[in-house]
Write a sequence for this structure.
């Protein structure tokens, strides 16, 4: 079992975001669940990688070559796959993963999250997708999705494609993992 973790390439201002990333990585590693992520050594991505390594977990990074050249790749993880484009990165992460969880992040995190939800909506995969709503970080996003359902832009039957919880244990249970 491998879970893709989408998260920020920045730490954010609140130190609890970094602790959350480390805690998620440690918990997954302790359960023997591999982690697939964007391959970076900075921000929450770097925190996930370091915590997984320290916990003895498997962690696979997928990163475009241009980001390796900028010295953003983490070379101490279990395996680092270098691809040509961001599109290839997202596709490869999907191939390697059995489920997906988004932690706090910015545009890139949202891009990855919404693409994987769209692929699920189009039945390109049938894997669970979770949103870890740490300290209400994603409250407004969840509200937007609910509004899009209410206004007819997201079919109500597809609302549950995104599983939301405030803590990892609840999220994993809801995702049936």
């Amino acid at each position: 079992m491998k879970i893709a973790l989408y998260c920020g390439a920045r730490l954010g201002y609140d130190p609890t975001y970094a602790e959350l990333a480390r805690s998620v990585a440690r918990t997954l590693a302790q359960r023997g669940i591999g982690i697939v992520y964007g391959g970076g050594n900075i921000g929450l991505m770097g925190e996930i990688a370091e915590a997984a390594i320290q916990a003895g977990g498997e962690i696979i990074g997928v990163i475009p070559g241009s980001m390796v050249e900028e010295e953003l790749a983490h070379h101490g993880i279990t395996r680092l796959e270098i691809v040509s484009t961001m599109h290839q990165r997202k596709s490869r992460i999907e191939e390697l993963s059995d489920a997906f969880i988004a932690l706090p992040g910015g545009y890139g995190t949202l891009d990855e999250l919404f693409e994987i939800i769209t692929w699920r909506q189009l039945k390109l995969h049938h894997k669970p997708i979770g949103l870890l709503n740490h300290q209400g970080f994603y409250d407004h996003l969840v509200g937007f999705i609910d509004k899009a359902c209410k206004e007819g832009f997201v079919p109500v039957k597809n609302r549950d494609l995104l599983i939301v919880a405030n803590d990892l244990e609840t999220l994993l249970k809801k995702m049936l993992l």
